[in-house]
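The aim of this short unit is practical: by the end, you should be able to scan a pair of folded records and say something sensible about each. We start with the first protein, listed as its amino acid sequence and then its structure tokens.
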Amino acid sequence: MPDHRIAKIELDEATILWRNADIEQERRIAIFDLIEDNSFRPVRAAEKGADGPYHLSLSVRDGRLVLLIADVDDAELETLVLGLARFRRPIRDYFAICDSYYQAIRKATPKEIETIDMARRGVHNNAAELLLERLDGKVETDFATARRLFTLICVLHIKS
């Protein structure tokens, strides 16, 4: 029976230039949640008989997102390359709202925190929808998985 899910995920540590404790926590939670529950079916690999689970490595090279998909024995199944131009604004907006959220947690009222968190979730959800569009025909996945993957894409874009 096919097991179309990500069993292991790695980020190219050379791509990540800097991260603070808040971002490191976001990364850990996204990876934990992703491994615990996800749906991930690389279409071409599945059509060639790959039935999962998969190992996924994410990196950014030459302004493009590289998804290296392998089987559990780390044999490469396929590499997807997605242009990141359409993600620049959502990533920038997500960083800005997250920064406001982290500051609010430390000194704002619960109502202010809730308002910022709702905006943060909205930006995150819109970016996950965009990722689903970009993966269409390449990877079949669900919204929750796309949302967590977007978090990890953001981690790859952190500059000091």
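Turning to the second protein, read its sequence before its tokens, just as you did above.
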Amino acid sequence: MSSSRARRLLPGNEELIPRFIEVGDVTLDLFHRDGRVDDRWLHLHPREFELLWRLALSPGQPLTRKQLLAEVWRIKQEPGTNSVAVHVARVRGKLGQFGLGWMLVTHPEGGYYLDAPPGPSVFRFRVATPNDKIA
């Protein structure tokens, strides 16, 4: 779908949602609602994906439990459960399989954030193609 067609279908919304968000070595794919490291999927459950996607929108910026409940769980009242912490632990475990569990950080004053720069990792190697020119 072209962006002009999308704007006609959704008038007043000039911002398009990206399909991919890259944070360090992790690529989140909105279409598949999952994340991957290189060519291996994380196998995120829907809420885990939403949590990681939300944190990836603003890496390095802590989001409180209350903010995550409102923006990811879409609830305003305190549920009386530790579901945010449980989901954070599950996502850390899935990232940990790739040695990336450190990326999802618990802030000392409460809340969580991704400790990774937006975009692909500077340590990722790219495979050369036949069209690449050697300097």
